[in-house]
Amino acid sequence: MDELAQDGFKSLMGNELATLWRSLIESRIGMVLPARQHQLFEQRIVKNMAQYALDATSYYQLVCKDKAEWQRLAESLVVHETSFFRHTPSFELVEQYLVKANKSVKLWSVGCSTGEEAWSLAMLGDRFAMYGYEVLATDISQQVLLTAKEGVYLARKAEQIPARFRSGYGTALGQHYWQIAEHLKSNVFFRQFNLMNVVGLPFRKLDIIYCQNVLIYFKKFDRRDILNALVKCLDIGGILVLGPGEVLEWRHPQLKKIEWSGTLAYEKVCI
């Protein structure tokens, strides 16, 4: 690491510039950077500073005005760890809803990352939604959306898929990869979206909103605003599925808690 990078690394956190960085991140994507990610974030900034031969202040100014550079840096902040059918009880709840649905069902995978969650919902929709389904899948990261759209994963990832779905919804690509079946792709729509744009969310009358491992990165009041906006996107009778333990001390007059073991989910009702 060169001298410029070393000096930048030492001065980024714990000073006025670090406060500016945190404010920038929170204002643009609402994310509260966990302490465990501070060092990784510093290292990424230092690497980019060295690439442009800029000091810390100059690089901060570049990120503020250059959309492409901001997007490049933002990509490094988002945690992309996910898996197929990650939280079994929640997917079992979705399955029950789909079995009972008497209309075409619209689902939203919020913070879909590399797509495993969205494809899991699509498998359930294809199997159990008798009147059809569509999955909207959004994420702030354009990079992970490209992976999600392609639908190609390491073979060991496919082992997370229950056996009853694995054979009908994908095929092996050689020994090391597994590809999502083409017939699922026509029902899943990926879109880049920032959850901080809660005012006037463009999605309406959704039947299932699946939002897990996303809200934990937002401040309490931003979390509340996002949740209230998500409720507006739900149709009456639709369900909001959250991560267990992600949301505390939040209530909404149009939501009724669903009693389903191991889950945190609500149904939208008339008032």
UniProtKB/TrEMBL annotation:
Keywords, comma-separated and alphabetical: Methyltransferase, S-adenosyl-L-methionine, Transferase
Domain CheR-type methyltransferase: 24-248
GO MF terms, alphabetically ordered: protein-glutamate O-methyltransferase activity
InterPro entries: Bact_Chemotaxis_MeTrfase, CheR_C, CheR_MeTrfase, CheR_N_sf, SAM-dependent_MTases_sf
PROSITE patterns on file: CHER
EC numbers on record: 2.1.1.80
Gene3D superfamilies in UniProt: Chemotaxis receptor methyltransferase CheR, N-terminal domain, Vaccinia Virus protein VP39
Pfam families in the cross-refs: CheR
Name of the protein described by the UniProt record: protein-glutamate O-methyltransferase
Top EC category: transferase
Coiled coil: none
Catalytic activity: L-glutamyl-[protein] + S-adenosyl-L-methionine = [protein]-L-glutamate 5-O-methyl ester + S-adenosyl-L-homocysteine
One GO biological process term: methylation
CDD domains: AdoMet_MTases
Mitochondrion among keywords: no
Superkingdom of the organism of origin: Bacteria
Signal peptide limits: none
